[in-house]
Amino acid sequence: MEYRDLQTKSEHELQLMLAEKRAELKDLRFKNASHQLKAVRHIRAVRQTVARLLTLLNNRQK
Fold first, then answer.
1. What DSSP string describes 2-51?
2. CB 49 within 8 A of CB 21
3. CA 5 – CA 27 distance, rounded (Å)
4. Whole-angstrom distance, CA of residue 55 vs CA of residue 25
5. Distance between CA atoms of 51 and 34, rounded to whole angstroms?
6. Cα dihedral 16/55/48/30 (nearest 10)
7. Cα dihedral 54→58→60→62 (10° resolution)
8. Which domain holds residue 52?
9. I want to staple 32 with a disulfide (CB 3.0 to 4.6 A). Which of 8, 16, 37, 46 is the partner?
């Protein structure tokens, strides 16, 4: 998801998305550790989305 798309969402929605993405990242890491994950690059995409969400939330607090 792009940063531009995230800017239109409310802070509550962003917090919910952040929790979902962190749970997804945890699940992907476990699958990767047990060699069940084929698209390892998906981990990077989820990490980038988490970073975008955190950046947007921090900018809104300032």
1. -HHHHTTS-HHHHHHHHHHHHHHHHHHHHHHHTT--S-THHHHHHHHHHH
2. yes
3. 25
4. 17
5. 25
6. -50
7. -170
8. 3-61
9. 37
What tens digit of pLDDT does each residue of 34-51 get?
999 999 999 999 999 999
Mean pLDDT of the chain: 94
| Token pair of 25 as six digits | 């990242």
Q: Residue 20: what residue type?
A: E
- pTM over 0.85? The answer is yes
Among 42, 61, 38, smallest CA distance to 50 is for 42
- CA-wise closest residue to 13 among 45, 53, 51: 53
Q: Look up residue 62 and give its two tokens.
A: 């300032």
Residue 1: pLDDT above 80?
A: no
